[in-house]
Amino acid sequence: MGEIIDFIGFEIKNSGLQKKLHAGMCLPVAVAHLKHIRQLTEFKTGMETRIGYPNEHLAKGVPAEMASPMYATGVGLVLIAWTG
Predict the structure, then answer these.
(1) Which candidate, 36, 68, 45, places its Cα nearest to that of 55?
(2) Distance of CA 48 to the CA centre of its chain
(3) pLDDT at position 84 over 70
(4) Helix, strand or coil for residue 53?
(5) Residue 44 banded pLDDT, cuts 50, 70, 90
(6) To the nearest whole percent, how much of the chain has pLDDT over 70?
(7) What is the rounded distance in angstroms from the CA atom of residue 39 to the CA atom of residue 59?
(8) Distance between CA atoms of 42 and 21, rounded to whole angstroms?
(9) Best CA proximity match to 52, nearest among 20, 21, 82, 27
(10) What is the dihedral of CA 8, 14, 18, 24, to 10 degrees?
(11) Distance between CA 78 and CA 84 in Å, rounded?
(12) Residue 77: is it exposed, middle or buried by C-beta count within 10 angstroms (0-12/13-18/19+)?
């Protein structure tokens, strides 16, 4: 996992977007459940990192059972379909 994070950090720096990511990185659903992944990502990239939850900004009122990062893609797709 460390090598993948190194590669992501390398690509962000090469793209010139590192200075534009003021809020840091948001980890995707697929890796959010790994233990200490946020800390490892922050250590490897030097960027602030958080785990995204579907009920943070996009979908107020999502039931507590659906607030896991595991459901973020599904909630996002429903919101896109609903809002048109």
Answers:
(1) 68
(2) 11
(3) no
(4) coil
(5) very high
(6) 86
(7) 26
(8) 13
(9) 27
(10) 0
(11) 10
(12) exposed
